[in-house]
Amino acid sequence: MIKEKIEKYHYEEIILILLILSTEFSKYNEDDFSSFSESIEGRIEFLFTKDFLSSLSKDYCINNDISLELETLKILVIKQYESQWIKKLQGSSKEVDLIRKIASKVLEDLKVKKIDPIKYSEEHLNIDW
Amino acid sequence: LELGVRFDLFIVKEQKYPELSSYQFASNTPLQAIDLDGLEALVTTFSRPANGTTQAQDNLSNRVYVKPGSYKPVVSITGSDALGVYAYKGTRAEAYLQSRNGEAVQRGLSAIANGGLATSIQAYRGASLDELEKTSAVEGAILFALGTRFNSKLSPTTNRSATQNTELYKTGFSNFKNLDELQGLFKGRDLGNTTDDLIKSGWTKVEGDWGSKTIIQKQIGNERFYANWESRNMEHSTNKLPTNYWKLTKGKINATGDNVKRVSDAPNFKKSGK
């Protein structure tokens, strides 16, 4: 039972990362950026991998195509890593636009409505012990 | 013969303490001090500064041991230096145990400790741990002995009490009520080697696939607290340095706002923790 709850939490982490990557950053502050980077750094490297994604229950509907897109996103995001990298997502560049585009597409494929990532985190990322 | 050695040794100290006779004990302050070797009296003093901590300091090593967020008796003394062991009942100190340099001393004297009344003073280490049994006769006393927390000679009750309380106070990650207090417990520690202490304090690792992160949890009353070790090889987004730190949260692993505190030993790390 706990295993399923943890698995669900990991799935919600994936959605949260996608929401962050697809969101316009203009309304967020420094504290939000810290939370965003913590949700991504150290997690995307692990969650957006074929091994992990294939271990998830089929109920989460992460098929091969989505899995490949998530792997691509992981590579693109890791390339951005440097000091204050999360703030790059505020602006527009070829890479950032591509990240935003892929993240939005995966959310669509997963039939997840785009909402404020903070709101999503508060409402969904909770383990009901 | 032993007494002869004691007083011979004190001759060395005569120049430092000309006011004291070679035949004195504990600098003539037997109620406040411990005198293990006939040299200098060892006095541990307690204070409660305005910052809400309890501090214990001995006069020989001048080391200050701090227990945040409480004014109950405090023990943070380890190694071969002064070993302080306390038993208390509520905020009232019931016993004060101390040994030094591996030597056990037992004293049945009264003392003032931490603003409360200590009813007895005893000291244990190693083989003398069985003396805990006697002290435990003090109704309601909680005993804990640093470094020597289990002894087959003791009753199960005493062992349990000594073991539990030793670990709790040695590691110090159980005695908090909120995030601020928890954050205080992390400060001044070797943050990269804190996980074991958390586990010893009753924290448990959260199952799951956390990659490079370590997430540990503890339930305090109705609240669940999480400690998330953020191990990084890159620069943190709120800092210009490669930073390892603990992210402490209340209620949820991914809590936000006031339910998050961060602790790092990096010099430029954001202080507020928010």
In short:
Chain A has 129 residues and is mostly helical.
What does this molecule look like?
The complex is a heterodimer of chains A (129) and B (274). Chain A is mainly α. Helices cover 64% and strands 0% of the residues of chain A. Chain A is built from seven helices and no strands. Chain B has 274 residues and is of the alpha+beta class. Chain B is built from five helices and 16 strands. In chain B, a hairpin with a 6-residue loop joins β2 and β3. The N terminus of chain B is likely disordered. Classes of the chains: A mainly alpha (129), B alpha+beta (274). Chains A and B meet through α1, α2, α3 and α7 of A and loops of B.
> Radius of gyration of chain B over alpha carbons?
22 Å
Shape label of chain B: elongated
Secondary-structure element pattern of chain A, one letter each: HHHHHHH
Query: Got a strand count of chain B?
Result: 16
Low-confidence parts of chain B lasting 5 or more residues at pLDDT below 50? 1-10, 67-171
Write the layout of secondary structure elements.
The complex is a heterodimer of chains A (129) and B (274).
Chain A: H1 2-22, H2 30-40, H3 44-47, H4 50-55, H5 64-80, H6 94-109, H7 117-124
Chain B: H1 2-13, E1 33-34, E2 42-47, E3 54-58, E4 64-67, E5 83-89, E6 92-99, E7 106-107, E8 111-113, E9 116-118, E10 120-122, H2 132-135, E11 142-143, H3 156-171, H4 179-186, H5 195-200, E12 204-205, E13 214-220, E14 223-230, E15 245-250, E16 260-263
Parallel strand pairs in B: 6-10
Antiparallel strand pairs in B: 1-2, 2-3, 3-4, 5-6, 5-11, 7-10, 8-9, 12-13, 13-14, 14-15, 15-16
